[in-house]
Design brief:
Elements lengths: L21 E4 L20 H13 L3 E4 L12 H18 L3 E5 L6 H5 L6 H21 L2 E4 L3 H6 L3 H13 L5 E6 L16 H14 L4 E7 L3 H12 L7 E4 L5 H6 L7 E4 L1 H4 L1 H15 L5 H11 L1 H7 L7 H11 L18 H13 L6 H14 L5
Parallel strand pairs: 1-2, 1-8, 2-3, 3-4, 4-5, 5-6, 6-7, 7-8
Helix pairs in contact: 1-2, 2-4, 4-6, 11-12, 13-15, 14-15
């Protein structure tokens, strides 16, 4: 038997976090007893889902909603997505919390998309219109737009020029600077060849050209390639651009401690799924970076140390097949009492093994992320018993 540790010395801020901009990409909590099985429309527990977001705002982080963490195209359908965007944006406004929401093309019928041919002008127009519809939903709700990578665009685009054509039209719709999201194939294999090439170097050049062409419409970019050196290089390229600042929001759930801490040439801001799982630690770390910026000689080192203490947990949750990281986020949410059942919409909670989940609990305990150890112990024991483990 293992005695669980007390939670870490986490603290909510008394004011705004200043030294980094940070969003936690939150998941949705399903309604217990509903038919949240593969292929079924999502039935969301709105009270639990929104209460989780209030916890993130209370700790001074922004919420990135309707992203892949919330199972866009992986259990969360467009009807539920629209309601999520509107509800979350209204809740954010009620507390002055930061909110950004994903706009994609997942309302397009997958069967229709499957029949498209590369370079089809009408199909590209359909992608543009799908993006425009979702951008309008997000903007009308009062949230910042995150332009998500599109499976439909990856299917039909023939070249970098096709990507430029679509993004030119989408960015023309933006009424405030957006975040561009580049999601790697480890998160979604259907996005292979995004930006018109399987070469990361070539794709990056296309990406940077797009940013330069619309720099006043781009607040920042979220890069989820799990490649720290690539991110650092891109961050430096963006920092060297003339004109308005373009932020690099790290989406690297493996290497976030070093990327957020940064170096003498800069740092990454954050838009991370792992922050939804470790938001008390993330907030406490960012407050330490604030203290460092205010003259505390040990603040930056303390902030890095806190983030580094969670790195093993992050790497485990996001281990291959990375697609199933949402299972770990929901599991930790359940252990910590933020949802009544260990479930995800679309039945995705079955995506990890019992051994994986037990290791996750141990790693969370090691870094002080079991916020109610007594409850976590009861739920872990029930999980083990249900799965035929007696000790």
């Amino acid at each position: 038997m293992r005695e669980l540790n007390a939670p870490g010395p986490w603290q909510a801020p008394t004011g705004s976090i200043r030294s980094r901009v940070a969003f936690a990409a939150a998941h949705v909590v399903p309604q217990i007893g509903a038919e949240n099985v593969p292929g079924a429309p999502a039935v969301v527990d709105w009270d639990a889902t929104l209460a989780y977001r209030h916890q993130i705002w209370r700790y001074g982080l922004g919420v990135a909603d309707a992203m892949d963490t919330a199972q866009r195209g992986m259990g969360l359908d467009w009807a539920a997505t629209q309601e999520l965007v509107r509800r979350s944006a209204a809740e954010a406004a009620s507390v002055g919390g930061a909110i950004a929401c994903g706009a994609g093309t997942d309302q397009l019928d997958p069967a229709r998309v499957a029949g498209w041919q590369r370079g089809d002008a009408a199909a590209l127009d359909a992608v543009v219109e799908a993006y425009r519809e979702q951008v309008r939903v997000v903007q009308e709700a009062g949230a910042q737009v995150i332009v998500m990578a599109s499976r439909a665009l990856a299917k039909v685009a023939r070249s970098a020029e096709d990507y430029a054509r679509v993004y030119d039209a989408v960015l023309a719709e933006a009424d405030q600077p957006v975040v561009l999201h580049w999601l790697g194939t480890m998160f979604d294999p259907a996005l292979a060849g995004y930006w018109g090439s399987d070469s990361v170097e070539t794709a990056t050049a296309t990406f940077v050209d797009l940013i330069k062409a619309h720099q006043d419409k781009v607040d920042g970019v979220k890069v989820s390639l799990l490649d720290a050196q690539h991110e650092i290089g891109l961050r430096r390229t963006l920092a060297a651009l003339d004109g308005s600042r373009v932020r690099l929001y790290t989406g690297d759930d493996f290497n976030y401690p070093e990327l957020i801490a940064g170096d003498s040439q800069g740092y990454s801001d954050a838009l991370l799924g792992i922050f939804a799982a470790i938001y008390p630690a993330a907030s406490t770390a960012l407050q330490a970076f604030d203290a460092g910026a205010d003259g505390d000689d040990e603040g930056a080192a303390r902030g890095y140390s806190i983030l580094a203490s969670t790195e093993k947990l992050g790497r485990h949750i996001f281990a291959a097949p990375t697609y199933y990281y949402k299972t770990g986020v929901a599991f930790l949410s359940w252990l910590n009492g933020f949802q009544e059942g260990f479930q995800l919409v679309g039945g995705l909670h079955s995506g990890r093994s019992l051994a994986h989940l037990v290791t996750l609990a141990r790693l969370a305990d090691d870094c002080g992320m079991l916020l109610d150890p007594d409850l976590a112990a009861v739920r872990l024991r029930a999980l083990l018993t249900t799965n035929g483990v007696d000790s």
